[in-house]
């Protein structure tokens, strides 16, 4: 079973770390190998369940990436705002002057 599948009552409570991401990437590698093997054997119907799990994993990883970019951007914005305010204070400028 995919590690992305989490019962509804536990959703949003898991911590995402490098180990979790690596396990997902390893799982995706194995899923791609299974899909390729089934396709080579002409068993496309069996591929569907693996493709669905792979799709879910990829969407989950993309969501993590988007969230980390959003938090990095907000951190960067607050840092640049702090830097601008500090530079204005050093130069004797205050807001409204």
Topology readout:
Blueprint: H1 18-40, H2 44-90
Helix pairs in contact: 1-2
Describe this structure in words.
Helix content is 72%, strand content 0%. The model has no long low-confidence stretch (mean pLDDT 78). The N and C termini lie far apart (62 Å). It is mainly α. The chain has a domain at 23-64. This is SS18 N-terminal domain-containing protein. Belongs to the SS18 family. Residues 14-72 form the SS18 N-terminal domain.
- Weakly predicted, low-confidence segments: none
Structure annotation, total helices? 2
Overall number of strands: 0
**How would you sum up the major sheet?**
none
The percent range for helix content is: over 70%
Look at the structure and give the mean pLDDT: 78
Q: How big a fraction of the residues is strand?
A: under 5%
Helix and strand pattern: HH
Q: Give the C-alpha Rg.
A: 22 Å
CA distance, first residue to last residue: 62 Å
Which structural class best describes the helix and strand composition? Answer: mainly alpha
Shape: elongated
């Amino acid at each position: 079973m995919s590690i992305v599948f989490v019962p509804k009552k536990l959703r949003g409570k898991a911590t995402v770390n490098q180990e979790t991401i690596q396990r997902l990437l390893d799982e995706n590698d194995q899923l791609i190998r299974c899909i390729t093997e089934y396709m080579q054997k002409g068993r496309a119907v069996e591929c569907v369940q693996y493709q669905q799990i792979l799709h879910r994993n990829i969407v989950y990883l993309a969501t993590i990436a988007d969230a980390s970019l959003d938090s990095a951007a907000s951190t960067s914005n607050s840092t640049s705002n702090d830097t601008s305010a500090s530079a204005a204070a050093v130069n004797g400028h205050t807001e409204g002057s």
